[in-house]
Amino acid sequence: METVKKTMRDSAAIRWTMLILLSALMFATYWFQDFYGGLKGLMESELGFTSEEFGRVIGLTTIANMFGMIIVGGIILDKWGIRLAGIVFGGLAAVGGALNALATAGVFGDSHNIQLTMMIVGRILFGTGLEVTCVVATRTIVKWFKGYELALAMAINVGFGRLGSALGIAISPDIAGGHVAPAVTFAATLVFLALIIFIIYSFFDIRVDRQSKVAAEAAGAEEEFSGKDLIKLATNPSFIYIALLCVTFYAAVFPFIQYAPDMLVNKFGFSYNLPGDGSGDIVLFGSKALGNASIYIAFFLFGIMFSAVPANLRTNRQRYTTMVVVGIAFIIFIYILRDTLGLWLNNGPKTASLIPLGTILFTPIFGNYVDKKGKAASLMILGAALLIFAHLALSLFNVKLLAYTGLVSLGIAFSLVPAAMWPSVAKIVAEKRLGTAYASMFTVQNWGLGLFFWGIGALLDLVNKSNLEAIRAGEMTYDYKIPILVLVLSGMVAMFLAFKLKQADRRQGYGLELPS
């Protein structure tokens, strides 16, 4: 009987170590993607930005990808392979981050137009690298985890990205210290460090390819790209529905995250700053930014311990005992920090971070559920419904309790849909074309993101046109009702597409409702 030679991917310890290395890219790039959301007010007061200019900076991040750069990147990924594509596009993201840091530091001059222009150029370069590196990370996780804990691994990878978003939004004001430049420089440095970590990962990737003849043959097959692959994707009903769902869902989430801190300050009376006596800060090694960040990392670790650890235990008794112990420890953790967290819940950036914070706790749990139970299409429907409720609560009402409920609901939805959607793509599309498939989805998604990133800022200025001078003078606040209400429509379309995906799966038999 022939013995099958094992490779590094057959070792659970090595697989999960590789996931951590890969997730550094997700953490850093999502920090840089979202951290401006916590600085909108400071950018207006220090740099003289309007809401439309703020929206333009974050919206034009997607412009190259709207015109097919991600598809080109996906094709390059299928041709060049994971390592070279990751280094090249990770480098682009790092250069884009550096330009933003230099612009806000005044290296290119103090002119508002020059700063704005160089920030936009930097964000375009960053955005071009960001989306392809996300495709690289997702594609690489399939390589290491297919046949193992794929949905859980993808969910944890997404969790790292959301941790970056949460920290970027909540901690950037602490790092800024009243000036935009330090927060931008820190975010750009994170992207450079993540690129170095990916280069380290590449050495392991080379070794696992050498260990497996199957991996080497698969890599060779991937070099032959045909335009027919795009045609097959574009004519597959299940892929069309999941790609459009990706657009409409994320268009109602990512842009909102950028404006959420400012919305909470203007609409619900939250503050941009914690109390000056330091009572709302956690100090670690003399740094309040590091101390406050440790709270989010602890939330993330609790989420991992509650989902990933029990999933790898052998008996139900061990699993349930672990979950109970972790649950009790989490309650004690919340109780100890109750006073600090109470102050955080009246701060715009800290409270807005509840959105990605919810995903830190729930994405691994839902990913594990998809692995064990399936029901991916049904979970996408539920996520879209929660999205609709969240934006209704945040747009139509001025009640703080509903604001908290809406943010938590949005965080859960932000966990449900990605945890179910990304592993489902791996069922619909052949593994050797996943790079092109994910790239196609990200490209279509960027049209929605670009429109809504800029559109919310432009609409915000439009509906408040007669009051803009008073708002900038601090005499009035922005009215966010209509800009946020528009996102309800996007959620409704997402729910419709999730239903259509479930129907298409019944016909095509990909098994989206079955365990991974």
Quick take:
The chain is mainly alpha-helical and 516 residues long. The protein contains 23 helices and no strands.
The strand count comes to 0
The CATH topology label of the largest domain is: Growth Hormone, Chain: A
Q: State the helical fraction.
A: over 70%
Helical region count? 23
Tell me the major beta sheet: none
Write down the CATH class of the largest domain.
Mainly Alpha
The string of secondary-structure elements, in order, is HHHHHHHHHHHHHHHHHHHHHHH
CATH architecture of the largest domain: Up-down Bundle
What's the name of the CATH homologous superfamily of the largest domain?
Answer: MFS general substrate transporter like domains
Name the beta content range: under 5%
Low-confidence stretches: 215-225
Number of domains: 2
Average of the residue pLDDT scores: 83
The 3D shape can be described as: globular
The end-to-end span amounts to 29 Å
Radius of gyration, Cα only, in angstroms?
A: 22 Å
> Which class do the helix and strand fractions yield?
mainly alpha
Descriptive overview:
The structure is a single chain. With 516 residues, the protein is mainly α. 79% of the residues lie in helices and 0% in strands. Helix 3 packs antiparallel against helix 21 and helix 5 crosses helix 6. The protein is globular, with a radius of gyration of 22 Å.
What descriptive keywords fit this protein?
mainly alpha, 0% strand, Growth Hormone, Chain: A, single chain, 516 residues, 2 domains
List the helices and strands and how they pair.
Blueprint: H1 12-34, H2 40-47, H3 51-59, H4 63-66, H5 69-80, H6 82-104, H7 112-145, H8 150-176, H9 180-211, H10 213-222, H11 228-234, H12 237-251, H13 254-268, H14 288-311, H15 316-336, H16 338-344, H17 348-352, H18 354-373, H19 376-396, H20 400-428, H21 434-463, H22 468-472, H23 481-508
